[in-house]
């Protein structure tokens, strides 16, 4: 049995041969099922102008899922500070928390949510990338507005997303729990967590360090099934590793025919062993190793596979093997 809670990150993949409307339709049964399986949280990520990921605002998905579920915590993983007004973030998530007390998380990140520069500028109304000081100011202002302007009895639980020591240091300085993007930059995980724990300052939001680690997880009954299910994301991933955000999310059959270059194979060979791909027992063993190595108080699993039934089956197998379902 896993010793820490398990949660879910949903990135709302728009699959080849389907429409964005189909992805939205799937969000309701997905939220209900992961709640039934005993997962603690379900977070939604912010993305823009991607052929593989739907541009669905996390706050809207959270509101919809909250109306369709009753116990699972719902949040953003994350909303991106460069694209948002701090007071609007505070109002949106404060309202969600007021409507659904003790169920709403506000996870804030720094990235633009797109690799397309014109889209990034459009999101910021023509402005360029924010500086470290501007990002810190936006996060601090959002927290201040939650308390001083929204001022509801029930507030969302704020988290800071981090994939580097700089993000982890900001979370520590502001006294926020941190969600480590191990599924994006696993090589940074250990140093980021060390920085966070060493520098943490208690706050009204968090009395002591709290670390959540997000892990790419693909689980199936056989290794062949795992490779088949992981294929589409591997195609998208090598594009992202090369700085391209224009790769559609292919079918498993098309992914199996993808001509990976030797450089791409080496990149995947460096990334995949740090995640949790495998049969149920192997996945739980790998997740346990990550907990032991990081001291994480919680794990969040992201499972970017093609079909809703296969994605849910992966979460079900992990929950059963971990003693949660």
Automatic annotation (TrEMBL):
A Pfam cross-reference name: Bac_luciferase
Cross-referenced InterPro entries: Bact_Lucif_Oxidored, CmoO-like, Luciferase-like_dom, Luciferase-like_sf
Record domain Luciferase-like: where: 16-294
Protein family (similarity comment): To bacterial alkanal monooxygenase alpha and beta chains.
Name by which UniProt lists this protein: LLM class flavin-dependent oxidoreductase
Phylogenetic placement of the source organism: Bacteria, Bacillati, Actinomycetota, Actinomycetes, Kitasatosporales
